[in-house]
Amino acid sequence: MDLEYVLRFASITLIDIVLAGDNALIIAMAARTLPPTQRRVAIITGAGLAVFIRVAVTFAVAQLLRIPFLSAIGGLLVGWIAVKLLLDQKAVDESHGQAAKDFWHAIWIIAVADFIMSTDNILAIGGASGGDFGLILFGLGLSIPIIMFCAGWIARLMDRYPGLVYVGAGVLGWTAGHMVVNDTKAALLLGMEHWVIRRLVEAAFTLAVIVIGKWIAQRRSRRPVSEATPRPGQQSSASPSRNPSTAESRNPGHDC
Fold first, then answer.
1. From 11, 15, 69, 233, which residue has the greatest number of CB atoms within 10 Å?
2. Any idea where the domains of the chain sit in the sequence?
3. Is the dihedral of CA 214, 219, 220, 224 positive or negative?
4. pTM of the full predicted structure?
5. From residue 205, how far is each of 73, 198, 199, 213, 218 by CA, in Å?
6. What DSSP element (H or E) covers 198?
7. Residue 136: other Cβ atoms inside 10 A
8. Under 8 Å between Cβ of 57 and 118
């Protein structure tokens, strides 16, 4: 085993540790909406699904990246997923820890997000491996325990500190903005070549995900209150037993 192979091996390990964070965050936020009995299964399934998706698209990603605006569209989808996950977390918190979504809903969110966000991981591992298929499989396989450990730890941390949900949503929003500004065609069309503009766009995506998610959550929380308010003319028909005269007429022995 030569030195170059060892260096490639070490590079792939470091890349897995650094780039597995966003996937672990997606899995943690999706699994947090599940009961504790299903959470571990969702984390294991999500981590395995993430690696399976990467293996499936590893050799096609280079061709896919040549499609104009594909990365930008993927970034917009990641932004939408971040808002959706933030709403799910708020639903769990408002229900005092009860599950807001079912198991397959969480798996679907994980699968879509992993498919969209796997590009950077695949390209980094593919570049570090030098085209060695064995090293590529090693890098993809190594990401399974890393993602599982990180996802479980993040989910427990969010249970203890619910405010971290906004931090997680902001990180996913930044990832979405990063995908948009790194799309060559989109950057050229929208004039985002300068690094300052790129950082501003990423910051805008981060803030937008948090603000939009919080705004929608507040609107949803107000809706049951307005729907619960009785309309004019409904009170007497809904609760006739509360009318004193009705109660007396139904109790003929009341005057005795």
1. 15
2. 3-224
3. positive
4. 0.67
5. 14, 11, 10, 12, 20
6. helix 195-228
7. 21
8. yes
